Amino acid sequence: MIKPAARMAELPPYLFLELDRLAEARRQLGRDVINLGVGDPDLPTPDYIVDAMMQAVKRPANHRYPNYLGGVSFRRSMAQWYHHRFGVELDPDREVVGLIGSKEGIAHLIWAMAGAGDLVLVPDPAYPVYATQATLAGAEAVTLALDPSRGFLPDLDAVDEAVWRQAKMLWLNYPNNPTGAIAPEAFLAEAVDRCRHYDVLLCHDNAYAEMTYDGYRAPSVLQIPGAKEIAVEFYSFSKPFNMTGWRVAAAVGAPVAIEALGLLKSHLDSGVFTAVQEAAIVALDTGGGSEAGRVFERMNAIYAARRDLVVDGLSAAGLDISRPLATFYLWFRTPGKMTSAAASKFFLEQADTVVTPGRAYGAHGEGWLRIALTESEERLQSAVERMAAAVKMHPVGS
Ligand SMILES: *Cc1c(COP(=O)(O)O)cnc(C)c1O
User: Fold this and answer.
1) Quick check: CB of 39 below 6 Å from ligand 1?
2) Which of 157, 233, 272, 327 has the fewest CB atoms within 10 Å distance of its CB?
3) Are strands 353-354 and 34-35 parallel, antiparallel or unpaired?
4) pTM above the 0.85 mark?
5) Ligand 1: does its nearest atom lie under 6 Å from the Cβ of 241?
């Protein structure tokens, strides 16, 4: 009998599978299901980027293999953007590598930096890729709890000295998926300090850097003095420019990690379609970044209005939900102490609304739910009304 490799048994079962099956079953019954489960922007990529792509795709030179590590002009453009946006200076040759989306780079950086006998420090709850790839690569994922009483920041003092010494990487992600939390620069500075002390690579997933509200501006970890030698940051075009389908991002920072990731990638893939790289350059550079700034402003106004609508509606219904300063996620307690799986099933069956069970992001996500604000205000209003009615009609466990 043909069997997959033994390491595949270490991949956890797909937690969304049961939920998807239930949602599909309700659709088959003719129900109008509102999906607030997926963190994928519902609005299109801005026209000026699509137009640049349409020109780029016509150029025969772009039909050949791309530069494996991202073309010089793409890497230069990323460096200019980091200067303009964060005041961070990057060497495009040694401190920038192009990625086929952050997810690809995150997974491969783990393979490039950690293996058997190594520890990888990962937050819990978190984007699942950090822990699953660490395990798959033969390393051990050590979870750092993200507790609401600490603003969903891990307690670095609670990590044993022996664990710090054996650790190769620390993963952080602020603004945070799934909690919507942000990190004060003082916390990032503490993480940089600790990682410098123990020779741990600090890996910062900055996928939501541009998705912020109420005047808040998210920093780059590389702004912290001394960070650049020990930290790598992932900057993705997916969420800020509604480009999830295009697959383009960059890893920037510590040359030792950028070089290892680039070497591994040169043996694995052949880079990002050059036309997509050209469109990404236009996305950042048009008018010295002013077009990009306008895109973020427009998108953030839309998400902030959606956020307020849902937070106000669900709070009024008695749910324990706060107003995040960043990301398009709302992270809130399940009603009546239900498990997250039970609550997710409850809202699907009683409100025809898909909300993600917190448990999908780790053990510390138990008792929580996540909503993605990736539907129109009209649809969100319906979802809120249905959820409020469900909670009112079935006061669970209270
Ligand atoms: C969406 C997301 C990513 C994936 O970004 P891509 O560049 O599309 O691969 C990475 N990290 C987090 C936390 C995300 O939510």
Assistant:
1) yes
2) 157
3) parallel
4) yes
5) no
